[in-house]
């Protein structure tokens, strides 16, 4: 695909405050992530997330993030929060992920032996995925760690869009976009002052650096 008119999509994840969401939308974030993964310091309950969703500007996606949550919890979030995309970080299979009638991204834990994840294997295992998200955690481990992984291990030949995550910050996102040329980038701890508390200055710098990289590639 030609990158001439291409714009790297930006997802800001782990939002817990309406003011952070409003700023993210003004800065041009394409998607806002709400975390429902058990044990996460950014975890919201569905009612909190519903209130947060109301802070979203039009044309910005609401993404709901899960990690081996029971189906009933996912259904409850879908019913109350109405996310436009689901993101699964656990050992969920394709049938589970597809079962909620909402497009989904499957997170791939690149902290494991990444050779296990060829493009063909991923696409066969998750035929219903709208795309993949490569993150630094190990299988069964939690995301949002702020750690990077070896970007060279991302499988080539994927036919679906993929998102780069894991330890992306305003300081490394320019290199990340230039090196990996992903469909989008997803950041949580890299734009925070504390878990769930976003830093406006870091959010702004992050967006500026992605746009600078897009201009470079074009
Ligand atoms: O943010 C969390 O707490 C979280 C918990 C469980 C699974 C994933 C989680 N976050 C996602 O992890 C990646 C990388 O985050 P970071 O930028 O390294 O902090 C990203 O997709 C987050 O949405």
Automatic annotation (TrEMBL):
Pathway: Amino-acid biosynthesis; L-tryptophan biosynthesis; L-tryptophan from chorismate: step 3/5. This is N-(5'-phosphoribosyl)anthranilate isomerase. One of its GO terms (biological process) is L-tryptophan biosynthetic process. Pfam families: PRAI. Belongs to the TrpF family. Residues 11-208 form the N-(5'phosphoribosyl) anthranilate isomerase (PRAI) domain. It comes from the Bacteria. The keyword Ribosomal protein does not apply. It is an enzyme of class 5 (isomerase). The keyword Chaperone does not apply. It catalyses: N-(5-phospho-beta-D-ribosyl)anthranilate = 1-(2-carboxyphenylamino)-1-deoxy-D-ribulose 5-phosphate. InterPro entries: Aldolase_TIM, PRAI_dom, RibuloseP-bd_barrel, TrpF_fam. Its EC number is 5.3.1.24. The lineage of its organism: Bacteria, Pseudomonadati, Pseudomonadota, Gammaproteobacteria, Lysobacterales.
């Amino acid at each position: 695909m030609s990158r001439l008119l291409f714009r790297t999509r930006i997802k800001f994840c782990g939002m817990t405050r309406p003011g952070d969401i409003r700023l993210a939308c003004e800065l041009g974030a394409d998607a806002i992530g709400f975390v429902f993964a058990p044990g996460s310091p950014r975890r919201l309950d569905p009612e909190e997330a519903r209130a947060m969703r109301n802070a979203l500007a039009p044309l910005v996606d609401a993404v709901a993030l899960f990690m081996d949550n029971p189906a009933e919890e996912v259904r409850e979030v879908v019913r109350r929060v109405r996310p436009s995309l689901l993101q699964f970080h656990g050992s969920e299979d394709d049938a589970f992920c597809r079962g909620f009638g909402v497009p989904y991204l499957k997170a791939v834990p690149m902290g494991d032996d990444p050779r296990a994840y060829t493009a063909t294997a991923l696409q066969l295992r998750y035929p219903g995925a709208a795309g993949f998200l490569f993150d630094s955690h190990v299988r069964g481990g939690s995301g949002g760690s702020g750690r990077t992984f070896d970007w060279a291990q991302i499988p080539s030949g994927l036919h679906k869009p993929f998102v780069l995550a894991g330890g992306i910050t305003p300081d490394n996102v320019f290199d990340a976009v230039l090196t990996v040329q992903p469909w989008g980038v997803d950041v949580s701890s890299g734009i925070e002052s504390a878990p769930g508390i976003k830093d406006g200055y870091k959010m702004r710098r992050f967006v500026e650096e992605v746009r600078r990289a897009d201009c470079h590639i074009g």
